[in-house]
Amino acid sequence: MATQKYFYKGRDLVKLRNQILNLIITLIFCLAGIFSFFISPSYSLSWQDEEWLEAGCPKNVSGNWEADNPATTNLKSMSFGKKEITYTSKNNETQKFGIINSSFVSKNQFVKMKIQPPNDKRETIIKIRPHLVNIDSNGKKQIPNCMIKVFSFNTEKHAKTDRYSEWNIFRLKNY
What DSSP assignment string belongs to 92-158? Predict the structure, then answer.
């Protein structure tokens, strides 16, 4: 009786299984690396980005900003001054907050502010970053549409770990 020749025998089958497992693990880590590269927050706009400044957007957050989509928030607008922030609600009620501390963080991507209402000792932390500059399909800039994203945090610890309680998008007024 002629003996059959098997391509894989005993230990060869174990080696093949290990090679396939190693290939699958390598692919998983490669895909995870590629996804983390594209999802990384380091590619968001900063206050000194060329695209932001060429569109005529401000170098800081000072000015009047209106809610991009007022239907999703109770806020109508925000106004940033040197020492205070004024929130205006949909009902045109205003609330002022004193700025306790303000600084750039994360390589000028965020302006971090610690704010407090005048009659309350509870501090709130907000981080603000440039959000969008509209560009048409030809790559030419339209009328500048400067937008910011405002993140609110309950505590300093949450601000350090970027665990925001809410966020809103605002558009620069008078553009």
Answer: S-EEEEEEEEEEEETTTTEEEEEEE-TT----EEEEEEEEE--B-TTS-B-S---EEEEEEESSHHH
Q: Look up the domain containing 30 and give its range.
A: 1-39
Binned at pLDDT 50, 70 and 90, residue 20 comes out as: very high
80-127 pLDDT tens trace: 888 888 988 888 889 888 888 888 776 667 888 888 887 877 888 899
d(CA 70, CA 56): 24
Instruction: List, in sequence order, every residue forming a beta bridge with 67; answer none if it has no partner.
Output: 170
Same domain, 72 and 3: no
The whole-angstrom separation of Cα 133 and Cα 56 is: 10
| Residue 156 CA neighbour count, 13 Å, CB half | 5
Asked if residue 44 belongs to a domain, the reply is: no
Instruction: State how far the Cα of 123 lies from the Cα of 70, in Å rounded to an integer.
Output: 25
> Does 68 score more than 60 pLDDT?
yes
In total, the chain counts a number of residues equal to: 175
Q: Give, in order, the Cα–Cα distances in Å from 124 to each of 26, 134, 145.
A: 44, 30, 28
